[in-house]
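Help wanted!
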Amino acid sequence: MLPTDPALAILGDQATVAELQRVRDELRLDAPIPVQFWMYLKQLASGDLGTSTVTARPVLHDIAERFPATVELAALGALLGIAAGVPLGVLAAARRGKWIDQVIRIVSVMGFSVPKFWLALMALFVFYVLLDVAPPPGRIGLAYVDRIPHRTGLLLLDSAFLGDWEVFRSALAHAITPVLIFAFISMAPITRMTRSFMIEQLQEEYIVTARVKGLSERQVVWKHAFPAILVPLFNVCALTVGVMLEGSVLIESIFAWPGLGKYLVDSLFAADLNGVLGATLVIGIVFISLNLAADLLGRLVDPRTRPR
Amino acid sequence: MMYRRNLVLSILLWIVVAGTAFAGDVGRTPRDTLIVASDLNPIRNLSPGATYVRNALMQMNNLYDRLIVSPEEQCNRRGIAESYRISDDGMEYVFKLRGGLRFHSGNPVQADDVAFSLRRVAKMGRAMTRFTTALGLTADNADSNVIATGPLEVTLLLTEPLAPDFVLNVLASPVSFVVDRETVMKHERDGDLGYQWLSRNSAGSGPFYLKEWEPRQWLIMDANEYYAGITRALDRVIVRDVQEPTLRRLLVSKGDVDIATDLSADQLAALKDDRAITISSRPAARLIYLAMNQANPALRIPQVRRAINLLIDRRRIADTMLSGTYRAHQGFWPNGLWAALEEPVYEFDPERARQLLAEAGFPSGLDMQLDVSTLYPYPQIAQSMQAMLATGEVDLELVFSDDAQNLTKMMNRRYAGLIMRSFNVLYPDPHDAVEWLLMNNDNEDTASVRNAAWRARYVNEALMGQAMKALHTRDADRRRTLYLDLQRALQSDGAISILFQQIHGVAVRKGVSGYCQGTLLDQLNYGSVVKH
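Answered by r_m:
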């Protein structure tokens, strides 16, 4: 079914038939597809995602190492994206039709339309190549490879916790450009949806009542209209973070960021089936979990959405 | 108004933080550390005897010493043996080892380690086992045929009288990387002779030892304090795994790495005028060949094969499309090595090609398909070939596919006409190339040997006979003549046709000297590098 022989991809051009067969036996490639799938499911049931043919380590181990790197980028990017996107969306809605609204809408459309990989390449070109203000792609300067802390896997957190500020600075410098890209990408849908939700709320009768009562515009927007959009906003934010996980595939590859996205790409090109399946599975589980968390958080915030 | 102000303040604050962070880490490379940007992609393990992946062997050459080195050693490495003698009947080789050598564990290098290392390769049944098999060593006889006959003396017994050059050339390859027996056996698991542990660790006596290998990120080697070779100036070597050649070029031009390898022609051209960079070039023992599937009736006709060869202007393709990265070459043994064929067998001659096609029954030309990998430089070569073959009325259809797919197609013999692949010299003897490109004793689909000749369904009994004669010829000069004749004959026959030889194009920052990459692909020595 595959156009590529994984055993050949592993051993290379000059492998003997005996070696190729040994690898095929180890990977059970000659078994019928339904049998291979059943065996994989059995393995999965015991928490075993198989062994990577690239790293020769359990895929679960590889993912556990790489996932925090993706979380670091995605979390920082999401936080920034939300921190920028929500106020911008509210501002655009509150100033609907004015020039500020137009500018914000244009910026958010750009976030939707500009291809992520192009944005990442341009950022690399501008900040690293032309302006020389960004470090080379990677997660940390090579001078610090011996000092990488191994606690949570979140380099910024671990180095700050240990008080190693040189490593912290290096990690932060390497993270900034990809984080800004993530933030821009996530900001776009959040801004647009916040604006839409707010415009809808600001047209409600209770808002008219609040204004008539003499409340300031700030109170009307933030104390009355904004809480009403929290539940749908949580869902949008959760979906956006999920979408960022899929964006991580391209951005991590361009910035040589050793996260789950890059792991997936490397596994694909190396015909590492276990790696591909494992990474895809984890991304799917995370996406579902994020949506579930958003639903639960929504019920906490808005009692009306709780089941009776 | 207030939250607009807050928003602007937040953005400004973020820019200040970002600026502070940026300013901190635009550093360059430390003086005691060499940083290399290379594509480490196909490396799956670093266990001696278990891989012949070019990139792996290049790095392993810095972790291990070999029993002997080739007379064509170009990077100032010495073998563990200081001398050897061969019995009159050519069946017994006795190696006397240098005294005082140590592994990075501190253990002394002894005859037991050398014997263990060779036996290990024979018994493991992995990549390099066929090299030991070529010397007559098997899992059954390795213990009795490789013996430590003294604390610093090792004896190798052959099962048939092979050409001494051949035996020594095989032993000068990475098959004879010497490992620390004591350390390896401490980490042996389930009788694997240390294969698993050595995949990610080292136990050698080379100038460096393996500190860390993180696939897809980096490979770190630290200085071996016990190394007895030339004095080292480096404490550490970091090889960054950078798969994209554009990024490798950027890194070296910005000074974030000291050396960038495997650059394409346009990358090298872009760096030529950079005063901070020196381009180092040397012929490499890697050849690109064109295989013609003998299942295609047209390609079974010798005139058709020769016509196709006459329509490929190798020199022009090398000068224009591959400038600085490949050179035209027409012998199966690379330039820079003993017995390499220097003169061309084919010159570009469309007129003669058309005559041959007419003789073969194709007066109005013919259609042919070429399967092409998308990796550099295959697409560039293919597109040039398409234009050139058109001048001889050969309509060449190009079928592009990912490299792994292209390889799979060839391996399964599912390409319709022509296919291009490359071949790396694994040990410094022409029989290596002969084994890969010519020897095909079983052309059936069930054959256990599936080399390039098998994949092209090419069987030439006469040439195979000549090859075996050369393998058993003891006189070096006579052997050389036989291999030169064989190269002319194989190239002339045209079914497996050599097109180009790679040139190592490496970009080195000024201030870095002593970097050595020899013609043989595994001859890479960081130990002689000095940073000023």
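OP: Thanks! One thing I noticed: Chain A touches chain B through 56 residues (CB under 8 Å).
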